[in-house]
């Protein structure tokens, strides 16, 4: 919320005031990587207030600020992309190679560049791969594209197209450093997801093995319990048979006693 409130006032400031504000802001946030100062007008056509304190700056936009020269540009060793379109720059590009050694994207559209020779200092930007010169008078020269590609062999895209007139991909419009870090983060996230998937698969396999073992254990228990039940039934049958045998023995004994009493009675009758 504080940043949004501050940006509201920045729109009404001069370029010097804007840069003073952001220079102070950068002391509190030394990791600032992008700085947009579009439409903050320069009083004398030069960059004022921007300092080398923005050591981690990778993207700087100074669109339509009334610049005539870039001579006051501080050394920004990590800067990848510089937007200078819609200004009044007509030359003096030597400072770019000296102060921005790792620059890869440069937009000079809508400036006062008339001759191919004014672009010669850009040969020293060995990492420069994208250059935009839309609406500059130099684009009206015969063999303009061929001449620029010949002058700057390190260049891949001129005004959004390569040597074969193939359009630059959207991703090429972003800062290389930022893109690489985002790709690294995505790659790490994908690796983490793959690791999690692998762990889940291993966990599922272990669960399946445990379930198989449980099923086998239950089957063994069922077999044992079946045998016990069968054994129990046999025991009950045997006990019933033993009871029947005992009953038969008792009946035989009683019948034997009855016969014995009968004989004794008969003998007594004969004696009488």
From TrEMBL:
Coiled-coil ranges per UniProt:
none
Cited Pfam families: LRR_9
Positions of the U2A'/phosphoprotein 32 family A C-terminal domain = 141-159
| GO cellular component annotations of the record | cytoplasm; nucleolus; nucleoplasm
- Gene3D superfamilies, A to Z: Ribonuclease Inhibitor
Recorded hits in PROSITE patterns, A to Z, give: LRR
- Keyword field: Chaperone, Leucine-rich repeat, Nucleus, Phosphoprotein, Repeat
Q: Which GO terms describe its molecular function?
A: histone binding; RNA polymerase binding
Give me the ranges of the annotated region Disordered: 162-272
Where does the record place Basic and acidic residues bias? 255-265
Q: Name one GO biological process term.
A: vasculature development
Where is composition skewed (Acidic residues) in this entry? 170-254
Family note: Belongs to the ANP32 family.
**What is the protein name given in its UniProt record?**
Acidic leucine-rich nuclear phosphoprotein 32 family member
Species source reads: Ursus maritimus
């Amino acid at each position: 919320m504080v940043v949004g409130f501050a940006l509201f006032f920045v729109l009404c400031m001069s370029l010097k005031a804007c840069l003073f504000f952001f220079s102070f802001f950068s002391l509190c946030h030394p990791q600032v990587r992008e700085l947009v100062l579009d439409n903050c007008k320069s009083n004398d056509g030069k960059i004022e207030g921007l300092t080398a304190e923005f050591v981690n700056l990778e993207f700087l936009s100074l669109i339509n600020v009334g610049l005539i020269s870039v001579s006051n540009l501080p050394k920004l060793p990590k800067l990848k992309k510089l937007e200078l379109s819609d200004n009044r720059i007509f030359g003096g590009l030597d400072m770019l190679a000296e102060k921005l050694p790792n620059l890869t994207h440069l937009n000079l559209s809508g400036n006062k560049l008339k001759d191919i020779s004014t672009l010669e200092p850009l040969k020293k930007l060995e990492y420069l791969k994208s250059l935009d010169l839309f609406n500059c008078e130099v684009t009206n020269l015969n063999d303009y594209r061929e001449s620029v590609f010949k002058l700057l062999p390190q260049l891949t895209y001129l005004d959004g197209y390569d040597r074969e007139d193939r359009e630059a991909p959207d991703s090429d419009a972003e800062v290389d450093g930022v893109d690489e870090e985002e790709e690294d983060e995505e790659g790490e996230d994908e690796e983490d997801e793959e690791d999690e998937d692998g762990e889940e698969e291993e966990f599922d396999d272990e669960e399946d093995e445990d379930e198989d073992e449980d099923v086998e254990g239950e089957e063994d228990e069922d077999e044992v319990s079946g045998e016990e039940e069968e054994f129990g039934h046999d025991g009950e049958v045997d006990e019933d048979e033993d009871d029947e045998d005992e009953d038969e023995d008792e009946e035989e004994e009683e019948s034997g006693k009855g016969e014995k009493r009968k004989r004794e009675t008969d003998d007594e009758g004969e004696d009488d």
